Amino acid sequence: MTGISDSFQRPINYLRISVTDRCNLRCIYCMPEEGVALLSHRDILTYEEIYTVAKVAAGLGINRVRLTGGEPLVRLGLTELVRILAGLKEINDLSLTTNGILLAQYAAALKKAGLRRVNISLDTLKPERFRRITRCGELEDTLKGIEAAHAVGLEPVKINMVVMDGVNDDELIDFAHKTIEDGWHVRFIEHMPVTEDESINLVSVKEMKRRLDILGKMEPVKMDVGNGPAKYYRFPGARGTVGFITPITEHFCYQCNRLRLTADGKLRPCLLSEEEIDLREALRSGASSDEIKRLIEKAIACKPERHYLSEGKKRNGRPFSQVGG
Q1: What is the C-alpha to C-alpha distance for residues 27 and 131, in angstroms, rounded to an integer?
Q2: Cis ω for the linkage preceding 70 (within 30 of 0)
């Protein structure tokens, strides 16, 4: 493994792979209620094609892989993909982001196949509000998924909460209490204006911290697993942690270490850019490993320095369900 950096000297070692654009929820900040036009089955990369990309990327220095969607667990046979990716000796951190609805069903098999850990999206602890935010989900299913992940050892289980003004920001204290009482690892995420719905106002991390002061002074901590953008803290006496992710007020582009492979085989250097390198066409045209390697290197070379959401620039193009969030 040689390692590789982009033109801004940022080491690139993390690949997020969207395995499907389909999802069993319709969360208000991610997808319109009617859903989006779905990719056809033939347009989606096969597991063998995903493995080929991951193997070449691993040879370039990628050692962390995260499976995303859509909702990755709606794709049949995902445990087989986990198994073959886990067999890549260069990959030392194989993880999954999920809404947890199906996790209780698959957690044990995923762990056995080689999955290390999970991040679970959960934006409320109130059943009725869960149905409103997701438009079709049941809170109990996600809570069962969290329990199952703990039971089989997919640790640390990280809970991602997108904090939305007037929607769920009144639950900040409730989620923080879960880190103290139940040992949860909760990450509060600033809402990103990436859909056509502009009715959700930003709750900054600075404001989140102000509201959480009532629970005591948070001390910085370092998580043993993961190298993402979150900054972690712990309340006095807490077994769990509170993390903050600030894509808007304190963007972390300067330390971005990732590439994204879309469900239909496009390699994206940046989540918020429409720049894409077509790997699917190359794969299906019989490209050699060296040719795939050069395309990955091209994607890394064209990573932009940063996004401009804080300056009011809007993201256009494909929905997050196709690019992996």
Answers
A1: 9
A2: yes
Q: Which residues contact 218 (CB under 8 A, 6 or more apart)?
A: 209, 212, 233, 234, 235, 242
CATH fold label, 14-323: TIM Barrel (3.20.20)
Q: Using DSSP, how many helices (H) and how many strands (E) does the chain show?
A: 10, 12
**Verdict on whether the full-model pTM lies above 0.90:** yes
Residue 219: helix, strand or coil by DSSP?
Answer: strand
Give how far Cα 297 sits from Cα of 48, 50, 319, Å. Answer: 21, 17, 25
Report the pLDDT value the prediction gives residue 205, as an integer from 0 to 100.
95
Question: What are the residues facing 220 on neighbouring strands?
Answer: 233
pLDDT single digits (tens) 46-63: 999 999 999 999 999 999
**Triad 163, 260, 83: Cα angle to 5°:** 100
H or E element at residue 206: helix 205-212
